[in-house]
Amino acid sequence: MIQSVPRVRRAAYFLIAPAVCLALFWRAPFIWFRNDDFSLLGIPLDVHNIRDLFHVLFVPVAQGTVRVLSERVFFLAFSSVFHMNALPFRICAMATWFANLTLAALIGERLIGSRAAGVLAAVLWTANGAVVLPLVWAVTYTEVLCALCILLAFYARLRWLESGKRGWRITEWAAYLAGFGALEIIVMYPCIALLHALCMDRQRGEQGTSPDGQGASLDAGGPSSDRAPGSSWLGTLPLFIPAVIFTAVHFFLIPKTQGAYYSLAIDHRLPATFLNYVSWAMAPILIGDPLGGWRLLGLIFAPLTGAALLVFAAWRFPGRRGLTPVFCIGWFVLLLIPVLPLPDHTTDYYLTIPVLGLAWLAGWSIVSAWSVTGAGRLTMTGQALARAVSVILVAAYLAGSIHEIDVATAWIYEHTDRIRVLLEAVDSTVRRHPGTAIVLSGVDQELFQIGFQDNPFRLYGVQHVYLAPGTERGIQSRLDLGGLAQFIITPAKALDLIDRGKARVLAVSADQVTDVTRVSAAVLRDTAKSSGNFVDVGDPIYAAQLGDTWFSPEGGVRWMPASATVKLFGIDASALYVTGYAPATVSASGPMRLIFSGNGLEIGSAVMNNANDRFSLAFPLPAALIGQSSIEISIHASKTVQFPGDGRDLSVIFGTFSIR
Amino acid sequence: METKPDGGANAVNRVTRVTRITAAFALTAIVAMAPACRIKKNTSATVIEDDGQLVSIVNVADPRAAVQLIRGFHGLENDSWRWTMKNFTVALRPPAGAAQSGAHLELKLTIPAVILDRVGPITVTGRVGGAELAPETYSQAGDGAYARDIPASALAGDAVSFDFSVDKAIPPSNKDARELAIIVRTIGLTPK
Fold first, then answer.
1. Cβ separation of B48 and A424 shorter than 8 Å?
2. Which residue, A270, A404, A611, B124, shows the most beta carbons closer than 10 Å to its own?
3. Hey, are the CB atoms on A428 and B45 less than 8 Å from each other?
4. In Å, how far is B145's CA from the nearest CA of chain A?
């Protein structure tokens, strides 16, 4: 039985884990928004009436998720009240997390029969690198809130089993049902309750024949005669009804966008994915990343910690509390199951809730090693060895985790602060120059990745943001989020916008933003002069210089229909150069004539006679075109062909056009 | 209602204990948050406007000149240098008198040993206004320069773009998604 101690002293125990959390995550209040946050921060912009409100709250998005409480209501409320102030988001996440830590300690106390073990488990949980993102990234509040729902439901269940009071039963159901508004893994809660009930039933059976007087057990509710009605495993079955309905609706009724990241795959990769998560849970999660000595630490201690926990669980198994390790490991496995079929989207924060099961087991093993009763079955040497092992493993775990949390929170702080500075500069610029487009120079891969593709600019009323012409090269983008196309602008178009006062150019550096519109105009004038004279029709970057009739690019080239146009710039040009390819299928039915003209004046023509002819043509420009700053080249083909199964009228494939 | 004889003392003790615990938690929180005082905040969103002047010598670390790094440069590293891709372009302001007497182009670069080890000697070629500058091959790791005289005819206008190409580079990989060719510190035009 749990000892009765003064309530205040008991409360002090439970403040330890939140205090450790604050010490580890001291940067959290200063961390700004990133990535998906920007999409969700825009929710208030989409609400104009009740119908919109219903839409933003309940209509599934992306992978079919409807996280009403943890995403929709959370962002709608906080963004409406606090706008782009991240601190209230962090305070909310931290407060919820403190509640989680307290519940984790209380549940651990009941499962293990030791308050110290419960508190230790909470400390080890909050020191795990898996919780970094949920505490510093608003969009992953889903994990924090879902953890609260699961822990509160389970704690209420334990209290109901202890007291039989209906209020706790209602609390369990309320928290459980609220979890459906937090995160999809709530569907595993009935399995947790079932596992607990099965372990408890089995334990009761063993208690009758094999008394073991050490501490408490899973069945913290006292003698079996006091059991609450429905506390057997059969009593957990009603919990499955909402989970089954939710799962069926999620899989069969809600349409989902296709994408590699979230495609489900139940195949040979499952064991590897599972082991990956196990290794992340046991040691610094950045294991596998180039962290030098820390990586080595992780590689050494992840298997050692895992082995030590398994040995402890096996050692405890024959005893009265033998099924508690099963429950702890079951908690980890069951709550991880929903994300295992996502081999292309393994991410550390998926461990946030599952890893608590291992933390309870670890807390219990440490307390067992250091308590007289816990180590009672060991010899003096065995006890000394157990204590030494526990100290070494905990020290390695904490050292790696603390380092990892420090590195991760520092990285996130610096990067989110970069985009904060940029967005506030954009805001300041559009206030001074309303309605202007923004061209950004100096954006590197890291800054781009921190949120450009989630369109944070619309939150400041900016419709058009481009990367300075040329700087988009080397930036990797996600095609499923629209790729780079929306950020690309040609030098000629950028210059045109600047000259008409419709764009400002901002240069972004590590810690400041400079309006370089004037100097940029001078650079663009030179760039447009030299680069506008060339078009690679297969490269989307030149799309703005192409007429409407061109077909989409294929493998770095484009098919032309019967006619098309290309716009080129070049004051001193005297000749037109064209490259392309006439496939055998086209020339098989006889020669094809291509006629080129510029601004309505004929430049020249060429006949395609040979099959699979790679052509490279050069025509002197008519005198009337020399000196013109802009020339629209028109191309007309004398015939077109159609391929079987392809309804397009095709003439030839073009590569490049240039005037020099 | 009957009051226990020590009820008042217990209440006082409890209040004292609550105060101690609250104070201890507050102290822990303050100690925990102490490092926050050291946090380095980036500047606020004050946007400085440029003076409209291009520079003739671009230091790749100078944020005001970043706009002259037209393409092919990766992010700034160690506040002093940048990796380039195989092809990169910079715009420079011709120095006074360059339109009459030409200028001297100098690209200060570093050939990293890692590049030489992976791809062997590398050749850098410059181009301005359609005219190719003589290439130069580097077979030793370390600091170096690519320097050429530029004729006056290529230096008309407020800005002149210089294209550089490196014949070999480390291609993007899972470890580093960037194409890495050489390291550049400054590129500049000086009067002859």
1. no
2. A404
3. yes
4. 24
Residue A331 CB contacts under 8 Å (≥ 6 apart), including other chains: A192, A195, A354, A356, A357, A360
Residue ranges covered by each domain of chain B: 7-38, 57-191
* C-alpha separations of A70 from A73, A239, A499 in Å: 7, 21, 46
User: What would the two tokens of residue B18 be?
Assistant: 């609550």
Q: What share of chain A is helix, strand, coil (3-state, %, to 5)?
A: 55, 10, 30
Tens of pLDDT along A99-113? Answer: 999 999 999 999 988
What angle is formed at CA A430 by the lines to CA A427 and CA A432, rounded to 5 degrees? 110
For A189, half-sphere exposure in the C-beta direction (CA atoms, 13 angstrom radius) is 33
Task: Compute the distance between CA of residue A485 and CA of residue A409 in angstroms, rounded to an integer.
Answer: 32
Q: A535-659: CATH homologous superfamily?
A: Galactose-binding domain-like (2.60.120.260)
Find residues 510-529 of chain A whose CB sits inside 8 Å of chain B.
510-520, 522-523, 525-527, 529
- Are the Cβ atoms of B47 and A506 closer than 8 angstroms? yes
pLDDT at position B1, please? 38
What is the band of A146 on the pLDDT scale with cuts at 50, 70, 90?
A: very high
Q: Cα(A605)–Cα(A599) distance, rounded to whole angstroms?
A: 15
Residue with tokens 């001078």: A522
For residue A8, the tally of other CB atoms under 10 A from its CB is: 16
Report CB contact under 8 Å: A513, B31: no
Task: Please give the single-letter amino acid code of residue A579.
Answer: T
* Phi, psi for residue A322 in degrees, rounded to 5: -60, -25
ipTM score of the complex? 0.75
- What are the pLDDT digits (tens) for B11-32? 555 556 656 655 666 666 666 5
Give the separation between CA A363 and CA A355, rounded to whole angstroms.
Answer: 12
Partner residues linked to B49 by β-bridges: A515
**Residues A115, A367 contacting (CB under 8 angstroms):** no
Measured between alpha carbons, how far is residue A400 from residues A117, A360, A366 in Å?
21, 19, 18
Taking the CB of residue A572, how many other CB atoms lie within 10 A of it? 12
Chain A contact set for B42 (CB, 8 A): 417-418, 420-421, 510-512
Q: What is the pTM of this model?
A: 0.76
CA terminus-to-terminus distance, chain B = 104
Which CATH number is associated with domain B57-191? Answer: 2.60.120.260
Chain A environment of B18 (Cβ under 8 Å): 8
Environment class of residue A230 by beta-carbon count within 10 Å: exposed (0-12), middle (13-18) or buried (19+)? middle
Question: What does DSSP say about strands B48-49 and A513-515: parallel, antiparallel, or unpaired?
Answer: parallel
CA–CA gap between residue A657 and residue A645 (Å, rounded): 30
pLDDT tens by residue, A49-99 = 999 899 889 888 767 788 999 999 999 999 999 999 999 999 999 999 999
Q: Are strands A601-608 and A592-598 parallel, antiparallel or unpaired?
A: antiparallel
Domain boundaries, chain A: 7-370+380-413, 433-531, 535-659
- Please tell me the distance from the alpha carbon of residue A506 to that of residue A513, in angstroms, as a whole number: 6
Would you say A10 and A115 are in contact if contact means Cβ atoms under 8 Å apart? Answer: yes
Contact between B25 and A15 under an 8 Å Cβ cutoff? The reply is yes
